[in-house]
C-alpha cells in the first residue's frame, strides 16, 4: 500500500519535474531569493534559506530519480527478455543475465568478446573472397565485351 502510493507519487513527480514549468518555477524561486538579498543585507540566514531549500529538494529528488530509473530499467529488461524469448536463434540463457553474480557476468562478457573477434576474422575472410570473386567476374565481363567488339585484350600485351 505504501509502496503503491510512493510509486504513484514518484511517477507523478517525475512527470512534473521534467516539464518546463518546473524549471521556470525553480528559476523564479532563485530569482526572488537573489532579488531579496539587499532587503536582508545578504545575511547568513538569507544564504541559509537557499542552501537548505536546494539541499532538501536535491535529497528528495534523488529517491524520485532512482525510482524512475529502477522502473525504466526493469521495463527495458522485460522487453529485452521477451525479444530473446521470441527470437528462435537467441540464447534463452541470456534472460535475466543481469541477475548473475559479477564473476559470471565477466565470464559471459569474455565469451562474447571471443565471438566478436571470431566474427570479425570471418567477416574479413568473407570480404576478401567476395572482392576476389567480383574482380574475377568483372575481368571476365570485360574480356567478353572486348571479344564481342573484336578488340584485343590489353592484359595480353603484358
Automatic annotation (TrEMBL):
InterPro entries assigned to the protein according to its UniProt record, in alphabetical order: Iron_permease_Fet4
GO biological process: transmembrane transport
Domain of life according to the entry: Bacteria
Chain residue ranges for the region called Disordered: 137-158
Alphabetized UniProt keyword annotations: Membrane, Transmembrane, Transmembrane helix
Membrane-spanning intervals of the chain: 21-40, 46-65
Biased composition (Basic and acidic residues): 148-158
The name this protein goes by in its record: Low affinity iron permease family protein
Species: Azospirillum palustre
Phylogenetic lineage: Bacteria, Pseudomonadati, Pseudomonadota, Alphaproteobacteria, Rhodospirillales
Amino acid at each position: 500500500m505504501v509502496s503503491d502510493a510512493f510509486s504513484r507519487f514518484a511517477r507523478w513527480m517525475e512527470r512534473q519535474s521534467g516539464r518546463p514549468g518546473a524549471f521556470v518555477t525553480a528559476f523564479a524561486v532563485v530569482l526572488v531569493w537573489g532579488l531579496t538579498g539587499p532587503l536582508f543585507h545578504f545575511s547568513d540566514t538569507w544564504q541559509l534559506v537557499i542552501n537548505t531549500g536546494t539541499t532538501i529538494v536535491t535529497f528528495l529528488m534523488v529517491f524520485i530519480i532512482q525510482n524512475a530509473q529502477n522502473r525504466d530499467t526493469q521495463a527495458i529488461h522485460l522487453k529485452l527478455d521477451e525479444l530473446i524469448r521470441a527470437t528462435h536463434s537467441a540464447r534463452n540463457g541470456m534472460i535475466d543475465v543481469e541477475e548473475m553474480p559479477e564473476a559470471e557476468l565477466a565470464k559471459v562478457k569474455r565469451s562474447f568478446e571471443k565471438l566478436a573477434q571470431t566474427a570479425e576474422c570471418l567477416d574479413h575472410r568473407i570480404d576478401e573472397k567476395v572482392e576476389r570473386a567480383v574482380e574475377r567476374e568483372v575481368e571476365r565481363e570485360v574480356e567478353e565485351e572486348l571479344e564481342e567488339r573484336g578488340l584485343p585484350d590489353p592484359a595480353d600485351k603484358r
